From TrEMBL:
This is Xylan alpha-1,2-glucuronidase. Residues 130-469 form the Glycosyl hydrolase family 67 catalytic domain. GO terms for molecular function: hydrolase activity. InterPro entries: A-glucoronidase_C_sf, GH, Glyco_hydro_67_aGlcAse, Glyco_hydro_67_aGlcAse_N, Glyco_hydro_67_C, Glyco_hydro_67_cat, Hex-like_dom2. The keyword Transmembrane helix does not apply. It comes from Niabella yanshanensis. Its EC number is 3.2.1.131. The lineage of its organism: Bacteria, Pseudomonadati, Bacteroidota, Chitinophagia, Chitinophagales. Pfam families: Glyco_hydro_67C, Glyco_hydro_67M, Glyco_hydro_67N. It catalyses: Hydrolysis of (1->2)-alpha-D-(4-O-methyl)glucuronosyl links in the main chain of hardwood xylans.
Length: 699
């Protein structure tokens, strides 16, 4: 059996004789001269991996010997110093080079970087070559990450529940910290380092100020110490009202001197424990969280206060742009005076889509240098498919960070196999046209389009204490893919899927190819059976699992599915053109034009932007109603095909993982049918049209 704990770091024995010979010939041992924690880890990880994969003892070598692997930096190795100064490698602080070269007339594989962490990244890249059965002679690889801050966001609460977590409870065991360093923390760090993730926000965006107390900060320090050698910085979420809750101050007004001092002192305290603390992630004036608007101040005032306190230590603020109608509060929640609830501005009333842009665009240019604005990929909330947020490209003076959701809140949670790399990639590749053609979202967030030196990308983690970390084994692929794309957004989802399959399962083509096809089809299948043609946010209220397009009393208008699909006797969809909310006006003219005409609008986004009559012939050639029926049915069909395909692989994978995936696909098939039936039968009450000929009737 295999419970999936080892993730993509299985390091399975290579058995093909040709490869065993080749690898053994190329590797005699490891040379590394340094006592730094990171280089020691690089050496021991490489040794562990090679010993398992090649099934032989790997000896440490003292001098460059024939077929040695030489690891290091200019500081640790004279040979590497010579090599790196002789070429123009531009490796920066995290990049690495892997090169086969002759040193002292011996064939050597050099894994080199300017800094220790680059060497560790290089080691993982080298290990991956063997894991995926690539040749390792004549290597000449230079690899530098495109985005600087590659961060996981854990929505973990201090009581270990995880907001939108579907894989058990939080892996942070606050009770046994700081004294107990669970092996899981180390394996978490190894897994992240292996894909280049270099930051982790430990706590939920719906923050608890308790984590900023000394009692918790020493626990945070213990985690930071464990993660440091793996190049991972620790961040915390900052609750805006902490000065009130912890400091006994009467206000949290960001321009109040007492408040400013409180945060300055807090930062001094944090940095005295954790000298490389990354900074804060802040959710303010959103879904009931307190923020600067509660004091008549702007998001910029709020963000800059934190930025000022972090500045002396090099920390950053990741200020979230996920805001919508600040006046309305969650049921059962009460605002205390000055905490944000009394703010009465409605900026984009009528269309939640428009709110973030309306609030933040006017603040462009007002943020301090160490503030990044963290923007969700789409304008609403992590739907199976969204158009890119109109903020990308619209705030050239502010570094914008991407926020993806790896955890599958709206994508079937952990009973659903949905490979999300195509979703991440679709957004990163989207063209904002902010500086003409080719101004992709990726180039906005990597800072190249507007010349920012700081850049970032965040993924809301799907990690919990389940034995396999992510609930659904294939959730691991989404964690993996996030890291790989954060490092290099030019990788294709197929390449990443193949890497992941080879490292996680095996290198057998008879297994790899069908699994790759399953993964490639999976997200589109989910879109089809949940929210085809640009439908969105019709999931069950609050839990977001399963269909509930009929809900109209969720507590506030913009939580109601009916608000999003607007089905009526005429048609379905949200008119965001000039005749409707005109949200399209927030995009560059070229983008607007792409979507503004119902006849030419890509069918995948159609109902995001148009209220389309049921019997209207859309550009797929069918009437809207028929197309909707076909899409829902094809989603179900694809899941059935995924089941059959997986069932055919039973002798190519261990029983435990085979059964795990098989049973979950069984549940997913039922869910797909449930979605199709619920949505079509409900929408049919408006369309009053029959199901198309040959259609499998919902029961
Ligand atoms: C979604 C999610 C919330 C989360 C919020 C956020 O709305 O359902 O649980 O807090 O996003 O990103 O802040």
């Amino acid at each position: 059996g295999n419970d999936g704990y080892k993730l993509w770091l299985e390091y399975q024995k290579v058995s093909a004789p040709r490869l065993v010979r080749q690898y053994n010939e190329a590797i005699s041992g490891i040379v590394v001269k340094s006592q730094s924690a990171t280089l020691k880890i690089a050496e021991s990880e490489l040794r562990l991996a090679l010993e398992r994969m090649l099934d032989k003892k790997i000896s440490p070598l003292n001098i460059a010997a024939h077929n040695a692997i030489l690891l290091g930096t200019p500081e640790s190795s004279a040979e590497i110093k010579t090599m790196l100064s002789s070429g123009n490698f531009s490796l920066g602080d995290e990049g690495f080079v892997i090169q086969s070269r002759r040193i002292n007339n011996m064939t050597t594989t050099v894994i080199a970087a300017n800094k220790d962490i680059g060497v560790l990244y290089g080691v993982f890249a080298f290990i991956r070559l063997i894991q995926t059965h690539q040749p390792i002679n004549n290597l000449s690889i230079i690899n530098v990450p495109k985005i600087k801050n590659r961060v996981l966001n854990h929505w973990d609460n201090l009581n270990r529940s995880v907001e939108r977590g579907y894989a058990g409870i939080s892996i942070w065991n606050w009770h046994t910290l700081p004294g107990y360093i669970d092996q899981r923390y180390i394996d978490y760090a190894r897994a992240n380092a292996s894909i280049g993730i270099n930051g982790t926000v430990l706590t939920n965006v719906n923050a608890n100020s308790q984590v900023l107390t000394q009692e918790y900060l020493v626990k945070v320090k213990a985690l930071a110490d464990a993660f440091r050698p793996y190049g991972i910085k620790v961040y915390l979420t900052a609750k805006f009202s902490a000065p009130i809750e912890l400091g006994g101050i009467k206000t949290a007004d960001p321009l109040n001197q007492e408040v400013i001092n409180w945060w300055k002192n807090k930062c001094r305290e944090i940095y005295s424990l954790i000298p490389d603390f990354g900074g804060f992630l802040v959710k303010a004036n959103s879904e009931g969280q307190p923020g600067p608007q509660g004091y008549g101040k702007t998001h910029a005032d709020g963000a800059n206060m934190f930025a000022g306190a972090l500045e002396p230590y090099g920390g950053i603020v990741m200020w979230r742009a996920f805001v919508y109608d600040v006046r309305v509060q969650k049921e059962g929640e009460h605002f205390t005076e000055g905490s944000g609830g009394e703010h009465t501005q409605t900026i984009a009333s009528g269309d939640r889509f428009k709110q973030a842009y309306a609030e933040f665009k006017p603040l462009d240019g007002q943020f301090k240098k160490n503030v990044l604005l963290q923007v969700k990929n789409g304008p609403i909330d992590f739907q199976p498919r969204e158009p890119f947020s109109p903020l990308f490209g619209a705030m050239p003076q502010t570094p914008l960070m991407m926020e993806f959701q790896i955890t599958q809140e709206y994508v079937g949670q952990s009973t659903t196999l949905a490979y999300l790399a195509p979703m991440f990639k679709e957004c990163l590749d989207a063209d904002t046209y902010s500086k003409g053609k080719g101004s992709t979202v990726a180039r906005v967030i990597d800072g190249t389009i507007d010349g920012h030196t700081v850049s970032g990308i965040a993924g809301v983690a799907n990690i919990g204490n389940d034995r396999n970390w992510t609930g659904h084994l294939f959730g691991q692929a989404n964690w993996y893919a996030f890291g790989r794309l954060a490092w290099n957004y030019d990788l294709s989802p197929e390449t990443i899927a193949e890497e992941w399959i080879r490292q996680t399962f095996n290198n057998n083509d008879a297994f790899i190819n069908p699994v790759k096809r399953i993964m490639s089809a999976s997200r589109e299948a989910v879109i089809n059976y949940m929210t085809p043609l640009g439908l969105n946010h019709i999931m069950g209220t609050s839990h977001h699992y399963g269909p509930a397009p009929w809900v109209k009393n969720a507590g506030r208008a913009d939580w109601n599915p009916v608000y999003y699909h607007k089905a009526d006797s005429v048609g379905i969809g949200f008119d965001r053109t000039k005749t409707g909310s005109d949200a399209l006006a927030q995009y560059a003219p070229e983008v607007r034009q792409q979507w503004s005409d119902m006849n030419t609008c890509d069918y995948r986004y159609l109902l995001w932007f148009h209220h389309v009559p049921w019997n209207y012939k859309i550009n797929t050639g069918s009437t809207l109603w028929n197309e909707l029926c076909y899409r829902y049915q094809s989603g179900v069909d694809t899941v059935r095909w995924m089941q059959q395909t997986w069932d055919g692989l039973d002798n190519l994978v261990d029983k435990e993982r085979f059964q795990h995936v098989r049973m979950l696909l069984g549940i997913q098939e039922q869910e797909a049918v449930w979605w199709r039936n619920a949505c079509l039968l409900y929408f049919q009450t408006f369309s009053k049209m029959p199901f198309p000929p040959g259609f499998e009737e919902p029961y």
